[in-house]
Amino acid sequence: MPAPLALPLGLAAGSFLAWLAASAPPGAAAGSELRARTAALYFGIFVLGPAVGLLEAAGMPWANLYVADVPSAAALVLAIAAGAAPVVGERLARGRLDRGDSRTPLGIALGGIVATLVTIAIAWSRIEVVTSQTAFARGLGGAPLFEHRAGAAFVLAGLALFAGYAFAVRALAGPSHYARVSGRTTRVTRERRGSRRGSA
């Protein structure tokens, strides 16, 4: 995932997780804040940060949309920043939610998504062609994205983002789901025991 896209997307992802946790029904609210924080942390560390790092390694400076030809150390900083973005978004949103403001977190989430989509639209000509910084600056073109190793990295990063965020959102509802299943199992067990005692 190109760093200029990953940073606003990470903020949006973390903020939306906090908003989902705050919107949980009363039966699932217990521990939802901790689950949202953990989900944002894991999404950043294991999905978004590595996705940016993968593209930085495979297609720099394309991975930065030719905004700058950054050195390897700066690429590492960008990957770390992308990994931290969901946590930052979640903490910002949680701070507003604790003050009773439920609109700002949703605004951060929607704003991050809009910023990502607008950046894609503006920079699409840069995304679809992989070339060197010098060739791009001189208008010499380059290899189409999906004929370059960065193309495969881009597809893998996108799939990882969708799958990772789906798991992160699912983690918010996990405990309540298991609690419901456990409750049904306990109720059935008690009913069976009661019927056995009645027949005896």
Secondary-structure-derived class: mainly alpha
Lateral arrangement of strands in the main beta sheet: 1-2
N/C terminus separation:
66 Å
**Number of DSSP strands?**
2
Mean of pLDDT? 78
Strand percentage lies at under 5%
If you compute it from the alpha carbons, what radius of gyration comes out, rounded to the nearest whole angstrom? Answer: 22 Å
H/I helix tally: 7
Q: Could you please describe the fold and organization of this structure?
A:
The chain is mainly α. The protein contains 7 helices and 2 strands. α1 packs antiparallel against α4 and α3 (72-98) runs antiparallel to α4. The longest helix is centred in the last third of the chain and has 51 residues, at 149-199.
Nutshell version of this structure?
With 200 residues, the chain is mainly α.
